[in-house]
Structures are given as C-alpha cells and as structure tokens.
Task: inverse folding
C-alpha cells in the first residue's frame, strides 16, 4: 500500500464480501478493520489478494510488538540525546571559556537552533498538543522553559540594548544558548534512562506470556502435525516431547513425566505427572513423553487467566495513590502559575537586569518541577511488585489487596488442605464389642460414598483397599460440620462426630475412651452408629504438609500471630497445632461459622489474613481483610480471594506479606521523595534563597535534577524485582 | 542586598499581566468542559472515538448506563506520556500503540463520573454515565 487510492481499492474489495457492513483500512498501520455478520477471515484475505495486495488475519498485539515499539522509542531518544550533546559541547566551551569573537553569539545560536528545534521537538510538539487540549504535562514545562530561555537569548543576540545591563550583566543579560543545550541534553538523557527502566517494570508479564509455546504437536489420526497454537481445540490430543513446553491446559492421556511448574506455580520441585493428571500450559516437560488431551485453550488456559489477573491488578490503584493523584492532576497548571508569580516578583523587586533575572527564575521553576516522579511513584512499584509476585505464583487481585496485606497482624489458616495435605486417610478402625472391623467400615463407606467431603473419600478408599462390598443406600443426608446420615440395608445409620450422635440421641460412651485417645494423637474420630447404637469408630488423619512448620515459623518471625481454624474436634486440632507451631486454635467450627470467627478476630482489632483453599472457605475469605486462596493450581482467579497462591506451599503466605510490605515501602519512599523534591526544589528555583544568601539555582542544575528525579523513582521500584520473594 | 520596590509603570504592567495570566491559566486548565455523547453503533453498542495527542479529544464522553461502550483511542503521537490509558473503574490498563487505533469496550454500570487517565495521571478524561 502506498497511497490513499490503495486504501480505497482494498476497502471496496472488502465491502463486496458477503456479510461485510463496514470496512476501513489504515494506511499508517497497514491494518484493515472489518465489521459485519458471519465473517470468514479466509474469504476476507482472499478478497484483498484478488485486488492485488497481500493480507493475513491480524493477530492481537504480541509482547514482541511492545518490545519493538519500546526499542524504537529508545533508539529515537538515543539519537536525539547524542546529537544534542554533540552540538551543545562547542557552545558550552565557547560560553564557559569566555571565548569572544565577532559573531560568536550567532555561532552559538546556529549550533543551538537544531538542538532546540530537532532534539527538543518531542517537547515542543508535546507542549503544543497539550495546550490545544487544555492539559499540561512535563512536555509543557520543558517546552515553555526552554522556549523562554531561547527567546530571551535571541533577543539578547540581535537587540542587546533591549535588555538593560546591570551588575550581573555578563551572567544574566546575555545569551543562554549553552543552558538550552545542556537542559535538553540532560532531560533527553533522563527520558532515555526512564524509557528503558519503565520497559523493565513490565517484564514479568512479558516473561509469563513467553512461556506459552507458539506451536503444538497435534495428533491427527495417529499422525503428528505441527500447528500454530491458535488451531488447537478442546479435546485435541497433543504430543509433548521431552524438554517441550506443554502447549495448553490438559489431562495426561498417556505417558509419564516430571513436569517443571516453577514458572507458573512457584513450586520449586518438578511434579510427577501420569495418566489422568492435569497439566498446565506453559509448564516445562521433563524427560518423559506425554500425550495430553487439551481441556482449555486460548484465553481459558490457566496461564492466560494468570496474565489477565496480573494485568488487572496492575491497572488498579491502591488507596495510597489517591493523594498523589490529586496532586498530579493539578500539578503542572499550578507550577505554571508559580512560575508566572515568581517572574512577576523578580521583575518588580529583583536586581537588574530585572527582565533577564526574572526569566532566568521562570525557566528554573518550569524546569525543576517534576510531575513524572509523582506520576511514576506508585504505578511503577505496583507493576514491579505484582510482576515479582506472579513469578513466584503469588497473584494479587488488585493494588488495594497488595496494600492491605502489609498491615496484616493475624494469619488464620484453614487446617485441611492448607496446613495439612487435604488428603485424609483412614488410620484406625475400632469396632465396638460384638462388631467386626469390616462391618464398621462397610456401613460407613456405604453412606460416605454419597458425600463430597475429603474425609468421605478416605473412608471409601479404605473400604476399596480391603475389597469390601459397599452396600447400597436407600436414603442419604449430609449434615455439614457433623457427618452423614441415611438408611443402609433398611437400617438407620449415621457416621460423624460426637455432635451428630448427640443430635441423633445415640450414646457415644462405649467408644468414648478410644475417641479420646485417637483425638490426642491428632486423628479425627468418626463414630459409626446403626439403629441408635454405636457400632464402632474410624480414625482419619491428614498429614501436615512438609513445609507447614517452616512456613508458620516464617510468619511468626515477621511478628505475625498465627491461628488455625477447623471443623475437627479440639484435641485433634491441638495436636496438629502443636506439631506445626500454631499459637491459637479454633476447633469444631462449622463451615458456615468460619466467617464469624474471622469477624471476632477483627472485632479484637486484628487485621486478619485468612488462608484457605477458596472453595468451601469463600465466605471466610471474603470476610477477612485479606483472603488468600492456596493451591489453586489451574483454577486461578478464585473470586473470593484477594491473593491467589498458584502453588500449594504455605510458605508463599509469608512471601506475599513480605512482598506487600516491600512494595508499600517502595511506594512510600517514592512518594516522599517526589513530594519533597518538588516542595523543596520549586521554592529554591523560584529564588527563595536569593534574598538571604544571594544564591540562585541555574536552570541547567534544575534540568539535571528534574531528569534524574524520575529515573531514581523508577530505579527504586525496580529494586523490588531483584528481591527474593 | 536591597530590593528595589519603587513603583514604575512597567512594574505595574508586569503585576497586572501576571495576575491576568494566572486567572487565564486557572480557567484554561480547570474551566468546565462540555462532553460529547457516544453514538449508537450498528450492533446497538455506544461508540466514540477519542483522539490521543497531548490529551484526550473529546475528554468528556457521555454514555448511557448498562449499554456497552466502545471507545476507540486514536493515538496520533509517539510521546511516551500517552502510551498507556488507565480506566480504574473497569480495571483496565491498556497500551496504546503510536499512530494506531485501540478499541476498548466497557459496560458502564454505575451512574456518575468515571475518570480515565494516562499511566501517570497527567492527562485526564471522563466517562459521564447517565441513566
């Protein structure tokens, strides 16, 4: 495409395709936008080809596009910086060495003109654009500051008598060409450094996006075909060779291999995968070969959801930013007014040459003020902090959650699945006098097979292990927090805790002693009753995760109180708590009451982080100041959670809180620096120290300070990326 | 040193000019702006194009509650100041490539003012949502 007529030709060709209602082609971007119904991309491409041009369906902008754009920006900034420096150097030498020759000022003007007009073009054009929109930003300040200095110098060059000379005549009344060059060189250099640093602040997202391979090995009728990822559909069989990245989320259909999930979940050790196991797209296959059936593709994959969650968090604003936002919104117009006021004061009451002096001050005020440091203070830290978290499988829902996590005083851990592995097993079967072990287990399994509770699965598994025939049930009822009831083989049966027995008016005393003993060992006793009589006891235990004790110690080391909440009886819960080092235990809490307990802690003045699996803890997670869902694996983005830990390790909780603290500290430092810098810098530039000390800030120094203030804010935020989460 | 406060004509003019400039700056930047109503597109969605060049034009968009609103940001510059747009209420932070159009569709659910800005909150715009 070369011209507007090419555009028309292509637009007409597209408009003739069936279903197209509107087609517009952009010459600058070489993109066509087509609207209509039942559009087929292939037919649109064909229509363009037939009109004599090439086309392909547009892909969404990739991270590579962003990178290329950033590189272009950096290249352009570098070219302008180098040119400005090269042209400014001779002007600086002439001015500083006091070299005078006929026409020396004209030579300086000629050398400065391209610096002002070409190197400074981004600022000049930016200034014009902002003013046309009745807004203002850094460009407005730099553009106005350098233009004021430039115009004053041009007047001094051609009409030296127009500016009265005075005691400071040599310094103030003459030209400022070297100042304009130095100012623009420094600010361009600052912008160059800032562009580079800002690019790095979003590198975490780019790394995540890069995890997904571009192509997949699709198995079609037993034959392997390599296809672009966009062609993979749910249900497709994919071949994953050793060292390949798993292309999409799926289930292992055949094969066995250790898969490295560290980049997605933060889990450091490879996870063994075999038939039926779920695999996450973007994770790295180890030595084995896997055949995977795709279960989620495109934007439905865990990786895509993680990226979306992180991007959403990065787009949100923490409450701490509100003040900065309010200041940033009026900052530049207010600085312009201060500059005008300073000019008037120095023109009216300043030393001669007043006009030169006042303009010198005006330029300094415009150039020292740095709205960028203020504007970058929070977003860069949020970008880097959330990105750093994502690299370790810690996903913050929004910036507010990131801010709140810092203030947590108590961490409340759900026991099952959080402190323990969440895979309970039957450890003991104790029959009552006159009953067989197998009968106890058989009747319990008959009822429990209808329940979705993890304990139920353990009972059924134990029955299957012993090859017991599991009887049918005529009726079944789940009693949350207590157990299950129903009719088995025509007899009324119940499996559950002491509360359930009490409700059913069954005397638990024959098994009370055994129950006491097993609870003391940290096991959960389940009474089995038939027709109003206890026939035995099952003990179920859930192993603590190997990392739990270490993780809880890490939380306590950070000055946090750690409590555990569970539906288990007090003795069982206390045994587990003692082994992992928890301070306080809330036992025998019904699922629906967990949120109440969180509320009680909050009423005591605690800022509570509730850690649970996010499924049956949703109300408690929502009630907590910070709800943390752990072990989400492929099911990221749990609605009720403020923080989602993709991996299953409890150690990530301390990391998340630590990261929140570090990010908030960086934001505070940035904001403090940005505010102090402007609050101190602007009055000094306005000449506040001059009456007492005779000291005036040079616009060159002002520009240098401005250029490096925003760079230091970004650099401070980037420190977060390097820290160990 | 001594400061010379003797009033002369040029000083009076400077003071008057300075005051006038400050008043002008105030109204120039903070004066009330009129909004542009989004128009109904073919599919029933509301549509508006906002030119991004040193600010947003128009910078106030009036949209109906509950109807999807497609904003086409037409960024006509490569100044890094406007390379991102943030719509906090809709949890959106989007890169706007230079000299290209970027479409963003949101559903305004809350009547009132929903601001948007550049990544640094220097350039401002507003979606005014009406019933």
Result:
């Amino acid at each position: 495409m070369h011209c507007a007529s090419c555009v028309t030709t292509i637009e007409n060709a597209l408009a003739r395709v069936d279903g197209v209602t509107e087609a517009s082609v952009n010459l600058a971007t070489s993109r066509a936008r087509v609207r209509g119904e039942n559009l087929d991309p292939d037919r649109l491409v064909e229509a363009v080809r037939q009109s004599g041009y090439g086309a392909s369906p547009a892909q969404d902008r990739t991270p590579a596009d962003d990178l290329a754009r950033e590189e272009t920006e950096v290249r352009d900034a570098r070219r302008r910086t180098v040119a400005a420096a090269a042209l400014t150097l001779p002007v600086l030498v002439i001015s500083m060495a006091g070299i005078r020759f006929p026409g020396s000022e004209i030579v300086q003007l000629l050398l400065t003109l391209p610096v002002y007009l070409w190197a400074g073009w981004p600022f000049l054009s930016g200034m014009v654009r902002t003013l046309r929109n009745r807004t203002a930003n850094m460009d407005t300040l730099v553009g106005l500051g350098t233009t004021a200095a430039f115009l004053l110098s041009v007047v001094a060059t051609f009409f030296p008598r127009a500016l009265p000379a005075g005691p400071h005549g040599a310094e103030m009344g003459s030209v400022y060409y070297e100042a304009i060059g130095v100012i623009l060189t420094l600010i361009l250099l600052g912008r160059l450094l800032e562009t580079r640093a800002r690019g790095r602040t979003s590198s975490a997202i780019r790394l995540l996006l890069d995890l997904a391979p571009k192509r997949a090995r699709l198995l079609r009728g037993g034959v392997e075909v390599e296809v672009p990822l966009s062609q993979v559909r749910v249900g497709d069989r994919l071949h994953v060779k050793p060292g390949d990245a798993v292309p999409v989320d799926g289930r292992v259909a055949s094969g066995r291999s250790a898969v490295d999930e560290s980049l997605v979940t933060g889990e450091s050790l490879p996870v063994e995968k075999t038939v039926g196991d779920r695999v996450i797209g973007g994770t790295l296959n180890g030595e084995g070969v896997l055949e995977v059936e795709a279960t989620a593709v495109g934007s439905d994959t865990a990786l895509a959801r993680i990226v979306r969650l992180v991007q959403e968090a990065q787009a949100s604003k923490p409450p701490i930013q509100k003040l900065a936002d309010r200041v940033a919104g009026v900052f530049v117009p207010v600085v312009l007014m201060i500059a005008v006021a300073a000019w008037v004061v120095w023109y009216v009451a300043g030393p001669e040459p007043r006009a030169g002096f006042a303009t010198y001050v005006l330029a300094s005020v415009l150039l020292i003020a740095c709205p960028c440091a203020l504007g970058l203070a929070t977003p860069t830290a949020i970008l880097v902090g959330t990105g750093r978290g994502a690299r370790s499988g810690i996903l913050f829902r929004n910036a507010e959650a990131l801010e709140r996590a810092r203030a947590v005083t108590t961490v409340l851990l759900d026991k099952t699945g959080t402190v323990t592995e969440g895979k309970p097993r039957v450890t003991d079967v104790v029959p009552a006098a006159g009953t067989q072990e197998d009968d106890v287990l058989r009747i319990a399994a008959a009822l429990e097979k209808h329940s979705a509770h993890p304990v139920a699965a353990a009972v059924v598994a134990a029955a299957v292990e012993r090859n017991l025939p599991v009887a049918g049930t005529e009726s079944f009822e789940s009693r949350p927090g207590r157990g299950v009831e129903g009719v088995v083989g025509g007899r009324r049966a119940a499996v559950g805790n002491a509360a359930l027995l009490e409700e059913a008016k069954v005397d638990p005393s024959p098994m009370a002693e055994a129950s006491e003993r097993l609870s003391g060992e940290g096991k959960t006793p389940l009474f089995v009753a038939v027709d109003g009589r206890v026939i035995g006891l099952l003990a179920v235990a859930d192993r603590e995760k190997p990392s739990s004790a270490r993780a809880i110690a890490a939380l306590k080391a950070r000055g946090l109180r750690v409590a555990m909440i569970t539906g288990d009886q007090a003795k069982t819960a206390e045994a587990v708590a003692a082994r992992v080092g928890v301070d306080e235990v809330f036992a025998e809490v019904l699922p629906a009451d967990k949120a109440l307990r969180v509320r009680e802690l909050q009423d005591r003045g605690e800022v509570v982080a509730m850690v649970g699996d996010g499924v049956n803890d949703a109300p408690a997670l929502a009630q907590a100041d910070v709800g943390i869902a752990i072990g989400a694996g492929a099911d990221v983005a749990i609605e009720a959670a403020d923080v989602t830990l993709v991996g299953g390790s409890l150690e990530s909780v301390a990391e998340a809180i630590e990261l929140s603290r570090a990010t908030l500290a960086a934001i505070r430092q940035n904001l403090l620096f940005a505010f102090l810098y402007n609050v101190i810098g602007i009055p000094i530039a306005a000449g506040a120290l001059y009456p007492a000390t005779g000291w005036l800030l040079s616009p060159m120094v002002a520009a240098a300070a401005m250029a490096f203030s925003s760079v230091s804010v970004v650099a401070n935020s980037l420190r977060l990326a390097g820290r160990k989460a | 040193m001594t400061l010379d406060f003797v009033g002369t004509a040029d000083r009076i003019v400077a003071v008057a000019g300075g005051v006038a400039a400050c008043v002008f700056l105030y109204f120039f930047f903070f004066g009330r702006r009129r909004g542009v109503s989004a128009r109904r597109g073919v599919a029933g969605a509301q549509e508006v194009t906002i030119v991004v060049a040193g600010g947003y034009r128009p910078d106030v968009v009036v949209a109906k509650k509950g109807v999807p609103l497609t904003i086409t940001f037409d960024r006509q510059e490569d100044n890094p100041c406007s390379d991102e747009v943030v719509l906090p209420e809709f949890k959106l932070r989007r890169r706007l490539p230079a000299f290209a159009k970027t479409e963003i569709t949101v559903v305004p659910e809350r009547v009132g003012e929903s601001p948007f800005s550049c990544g640094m909150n220097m350039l401002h715009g507003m979606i005014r949502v009406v019933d």
Remarks:
- The mean pLDDT of chain B is 83.
- Helices of chain B lie at 9-30.
- The longest helix of chain B spans residues 9-30.
- The two ends of chain B are 65 Å apart (CA to CA).
